[in-house]
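Ticket reopened. Same input as before:
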Amino acid sequence: MNLAAEGVEHHPLVPIWQELVVGSIAFALLCFVLMKFVLPRMETMYQARVDAIEGGLKRAEAAQAEANQLLEQYRAQLAEVRTEAAQIRDDARADAESIRTEILAKAREESDRIIAAGRESLAVERQTIVRELRAEVGGLAVDLASRIVGESLADEARRKGTVERFLTDLESAGAR
Amino acid sequence: MSGQLVAAEGLPWPPSVGDFYPPDLAGPWVTKFTLMIWLAVGLLIIFFMATYRNPKLVPSKGQWMAESVYGLVRDNIAREQMGKDGIRFAPYFTVLFCFIVVTNLFGIVPGLQISPNSHIAFPIVLAVITYVMYLYIGVRKHGLGSYLKQTLIIPGVPWPMHFLLIPIEFLQNFINRPVTLAVRLFANMFAGHLILLVFTVGGFVMLASDNLFIQVSSIAAFLMAILMAFFEVLVALLQAYVFVTLTANYIGSSLADEH
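Engineering reply: fixed in the latest deploy. New output:
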């Protein structure tokens, strides 16, 4: 075998025992430090990240579902409100109608009453006037008669019939 | 040995196994290789502690980098090889992966320029851990007897075949696995360093030549060295990936319920 200039030839497949010791200790130290202080935290962080991502997705899904539900709810409420409003409107319309008819009826009644009262008072007045007139006509007739009697009493019987007829005519004209 | 060339530049030529064993800095405990191991450990601890001191759900750039390494090992190695069970091993695999990547990459870091894994001691340590781990997990899960039975005996085979198959399975599962694991990593790093040495040192040797043609040709050697350095990056990452994937696969087979 070719010997190197600087010294002892070492077979490369034979380990140097000091290196075995140093290698073991150094590697054990490395393992201890990293596996105790670093890598478990890394795994935790890894899981936390997975959780964060999956949790985020789950939360987003939940939020979406909730939003959909709310939307549905609002839609239902809106529809409900709409029907209610329509009903209220219908009710109001019906109320207005009934109030109108009622008022109309009242007004008609009132007007009828007023008209009836007017008619009655007219009739009463007419009656009064007729009565007064009749009394007056009687007086006038008597006046006229006495005057006629005073001037010419001839043909008394005929004149008597004339007065009677006159009065009857007068009465029938008043009743008309 | 081409003595006149070495004399000309003071460069060791051709590259040999001796280049992998530089003189100790201060005894056998403090060498370039042990220091590189401590450096790798220190760098990794600092990197992960710094980037993961204050982790947030939305990561910073450093945190994101640290997490992508973990994510790669967790999802592309552990879960791929072992299914859901693999995730609890992901922290160890991540440490293993990072350690091998960093030590492998030392092979092309200026100033270091050799991977500690080109000394077989370090791959042995890592392979032994994998070995012990998958044996222990297999025995703990199935009990010694049924683990051996499950590992060695292939179901549905005519019984005389077992005389042949049991030794093969034994060799395969209890000897070849750890040995190949260690040797594969070691050999790749060893060969990689050797290739870089050939082209770089060779380039300088050619440059020191008296012949103009050989001096000009050294450009090709340097270009090749650069190309090989990039190639080494690929090998460094790939070998780390292979080591961890096989470890996951072995542990997965220990956890499995069938052969």
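The interface with chain B takes residues 1-20, 22-24, 26-27, 29-31, 33-35, 37-43, 45-46, 48-49, 52 of chain A (CB under 8 Å). Residues 41-175 of chain A form one domain. Please confirm and we'll close it.
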